[in-house]
């Protein structure tokens, strides 16, 4: 836990003793914390949840990228309140998206096509550069793309492109299907 939180073991013991982190002492004096409690602790303090810990509790992470702040907030909130059972990480531009994707290694990336700094194809191309590994499926949500742009997206591995005009419920269903494909793979 100390390694995950980047603090000393004494700090973790103090958190448990002070009731900040729910845990217990073993008969030998060691402190133990359930994985779900550690995840809850990390999330309430806006600390990253490591992939191996996320895997232990079985929650996928979805990175949602959109420069329209209102749409980003609405979509993220809808995903969180849905029955998908995923953790949502938000980014509002391509560079921040790349940083978040590298940090949390998501199962799914929900990516707006037009961002202020990079478009969806450029983001995906950077994720596919040599030495990098893209394990996540990318779902593009857009106000509209032309046929040529859609072909470029499919060419870099995008399976699904959803129009924002179709509504958030259609986007949620596309997310559900993409997560099913990821689990089946």
Helix and strand arrangement:
Layout: H1 2-5, H2 9-17, E1 24-25, E2 31-32, H3 35-44, H4 51-57, E3 61-65, H5 69-81, E4 87-91, H6 94-104, E5 108-112, H7 120-127, E6 137-142, H8 147-155, E7 160-163, H9 168-184
Parallel strand pairs: 3-4, 3-5, 5-6, 6-7
Antiparallel strand pairs: 1-2
Helix pairs in contact: 6-7
Strand content: 15-25%
CATH topology of the largest domain: Rossmann fold
- Helix and strand content put the structural class at alpha/beta
First CA to last CA: what distance? 31 Å
Largest sheet: 5 strands, parallel
Helix and strand element order: HHEEHHEHEHEHEHEH
CATH architecture label of the largest domain: 3-Layer(aba) Sandwich
Identify the notable features of this structure and list them briefly:
single chain; 185 residues; alpha/beta; Rossmann fold; 2 domains; five-stranded parallel β-sheet; 9 helices; 48% helix
Explained architecture:
With 185 residues, this protein is α/β, with parallel strands linked by helices. It has two domains: 2-56, no CATH class; 60-184, Rossmann fold (3-Layer(aba) Sandwich), CATH 3.40.50.2300. The protein contains nine helices and seven strands, in the order H-H-E-E-H-H-E-H-E-H-E-H-E-H-E-H. It has helices at residues 2-5, 9-17, 35-44, 51-57, 69-81, 94-104, 120-127, 147-155, 168-184; strands at residues 24-25, 31-32, 61-65, 87-91, 108-112, 137-142, 160-163. The strands form two sheets. Strands 4-3-5-6-7 form a five-stranded parallel β-sheet, with helices on both faces. Strands 1-2 form a two-stranded antiparallel ribbon. Strand 3, helix 5 and strand 4 (87-91) form a beta-alpha-beta unit. 28% of the residues are buried. The mean pLDDT is 87.
